[in-house]
Amino acid sequence: MSEAWAAGRIALVTGATSGFGEAMARRLLAAGGHVIATGRRADRLASLAEELASERLLTRELDVTSEASIAALLPSLPPAFEAIDILYNNAGLALGLGKAHEANLGDWETMIATNVTGLVRMTRAVLPGMVARDRGDVINISSVAANYPYPGGNVYGATKAFVRQFSLNLRADLLGTKIRVTSIEPGMADTEFSVVRFKGDQTAADKVYAGVHAMSADDVALVCESVLRLPAHINVNTLEIMPVQQAFGPFAVDRG
Ligand code: NDP
Ligand code: 8X3
């Protein structure tokens, strides 16, 4: 069904091979949008293309940690997909939950390269076209981890705080244009996120969501859709969402 929030618009989705990105790509496509679905896993992209079988879906392998991969993306787009209206900056990951003094430095660097540098490079690549056309929506996927510290969240939370503040600073720079920017800050959502965080340990990942009606990837995509549906003069700056079964704890105190 064609719907005004998506129809006739071109969306570039990073991390469309699973979770939030895949769910958002499906929603955009179902509502009549053109979608450039990206990610590193070519097999997932091929399955998505085969299943959805749409001329409005284009898939592209993209590693957001690679400057060359990002540089090659936009020039490779056919004319019908060139004028990107929606940048869904979602590709990201957490690696590990260890304490800062024990954590793997390589994991930290990968999180920064993906969640911060990758997102910044994608934004810098797409934004000039949006400004030239004076239209566009940038949806940046941050996290509740941006706003609330927790043990083992160290660099992951810091990358997401970057995403939140970068989004707000984009708003400052884009004043005078019609471009909207939103930082979406989800809590617990049952995707491949925890399997990645625990490096393939499905049992550890399952424990995160045990007994909780966590958000699904499509729940988060629904929230993003609702942001895009708002009248063009309204900008949602930041939007934090959680399952009802998740809340806040007391401060930790060392009484030792
Ligand atoms: P998933 O692991 O299901 O999806 C992550 C996506 O990111 C995959 O499509 C993956 O694709 C892509 N990705 C990872 N690294 C790269 C890379 N170097 N280049 C391109 N794509 C990459 O997790 P979610 O859907 O849950 O995560 C999406 C975003 O939401 C992340 O930024 C995450 O931090 C954030 N988030 C998740 C929450 C949750 O509880 N699930 C809560 C709050 C925020 P591929 O491997 O094919 O490259
Ligand atoms: C993912 C949510 O709480 O695991 O960003 O950090 S959390």
Task: Give an account of the 3D structure.
About 40% of the residues lie in helices and about 15% in strands. It has about 260 residues and is of the alpha/beta class. It has one domain: NAD(P)-binding Rossmann-like Domain (Rossmann fold). It has a 7-stranded parallel β-sheet, sandwiched between helices. Strand 5, helix 5 (about 155-175) and strand 6 (about 180-185) form a beta-alpha-beta unit. The chain is globular. The N and C termini lie far apart (about 60 Å). It binds NADPH dihydro-nicotinamide-adenine-dinucleotide phosphate and 2-hydroxyethylsulfonic acid. 2-hydroxyethylsulfonic acid binds near residues 144 and 187.
In CATH, the architecture is 3-Layer(aba) Sandwich
CATH topology category name:
Rossmann fold
CATH superfamily: NAD(P)-binding Rossmann-like Domain
Query: Helix amount, in percent?
Result: 40-55%
Radius of gyration: 18 Å
Largest beta-sheet characterization? 7 strands, parallel
Average residue-wise pLDDT:
98
* Secondary-structure element series: EHEHEHEHEHEHHHE
Give the beta-strand count: 7
Number of domains: 1
Low-confidence stretches: none
Broad CATH class: Alpha Beta
Task: State the secondary-structure class.
Answer: alpha/beta
Strand order, sheet with most strands: 3-2-1-4-5-6-7
Tell me the number of helical segments per DSSP (H or I, 4 or more residues long).
8
